[in-house]
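EI: anyone free to look at a 486-residue chain?
SC: sure, send it
EI:
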Amino acid sequence: MKTIILIGRPNVGKSSLFNRLAGRRVAITSDIAGTTRDTNRAKISIDDRDCIISDSGGLDESNELWRAVRKNSLEAAQNADIIIFMVDGKLYPDEVDKKIFYELSKLKKPICLAINKVDSKKDELRANEFLSFGAKKLFWLSVSHNCGTDELRAWIYQHLEPNQNEKIEQDFDEYLQSLDENGQYLNQNQLNDDIAELSDILRDEISPNEDYENKDIKVGIVGRVNVGKSSLLNALVKKQRSVVSQIDGTTIDPVNEKISLPCKQNKIKTFEFIDTAGIRRRGKIDGIEKYALLRTQKILENADIALLILDASEGINELDERIAGLASKHELGVIIVLNKWDKISADEKAFDKICLEIKDRFKFLSYAPIISISAFGGKRVHKIYDLILSVYENYTQKLQTAKLNEILTKAQIKHPPAREHGRVVKIYYGVQFSFAPPRIALITNKPRALHFSYMRYLQNQIRQNFNLTGTPLVLIPKNKNKDESG
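SC: here you go
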């Protein structure tokens, strides 16, 4: 798939054009120069052809941070297939811009000069000054008024490849609804027959359509500011993908990067890592960081696994707990990463001690494995890949139906559910109806009578018999019959 990059100085309208071409608000935009710092990517369609478009940070050298941004943006342009160099039409041409455009033109790739903010006849006259760049393809744009973008899209389309057919995933909510109507069981043999039939339905219908083995693993990197999320992304993908700086809040837009590696049976698995903006305390979130926080939460909605980054040198605080709550809220697979382990003099006993503290404070993530690393030095970072594969396998696991019901039967014999107004509460059977994470419908005569403490007891019983490390387990009580109130 072809890649396109938008490149130019800060505040020339790259992010606005990025959103216009994407047809949705992907990049954060504001009147503040330098809102975009990392290279933000999205898959978009130009008519019937797909491509990856990148919104790069502005070309500026005013301080250390912006010099790093500039370097990152120029490296991204080197690797792109199509280059759109943007300038501000309300300003006169800059010699530095002209030099950069000339150097990029030497790459022998499709490149155009997009003159933005041409909103009037006066702007058009000024924009003619940019003919001095010697661009073979030049566009006059007003992105805010959507003028000139159709011509630009047509030019991009000429350089894209035709699409391949993509697989369509199906929704199985209807299956769960139909499950409610299968409640009248005359004897145990009938129940066993129906469980076997439901198991066949799951195997034949859900598994092939939810083809997790061939899907990319989406991994969100989350944590508070300056805990080393960007350094970890760079270490994982083995290149300077995200801008790293000692300035808190360097990352604003989510930064995504894919890497493919061999795994079991020499199969290739693709990891898509997303470096999200660091999260501050609510009272310290200002300006464009509010958009960044919302974008981080949106990323988590679509992720499979969260790498929760903690600063080992500073310990755990209340904000870490709140961020961990976001991962739990979105029912993600979770790996807790203790970064900056090299900054403390720690042995195995120290690691065990901090693990106990994490388990105590993050009780809702008791299933999450913990690993200590040094992202900046690259120490133990490679072990994260194996952890992700293991957690993802558990996260998308199909639990054996017969074994699941054997566990539920034994659990009820050992510790029956509390009665409701003297009436027996009985779980007839359980069946997994969804993956990522595993969701199990508990078919019962009194779903409202199953207390959360009993549900937690059942979860623990199931976890003792299945490997569910790193993944939440969702149990949903359902009426045996639709006409029963429970």
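EI: The chain has a mean pLDDT of 78.
SC: 👍
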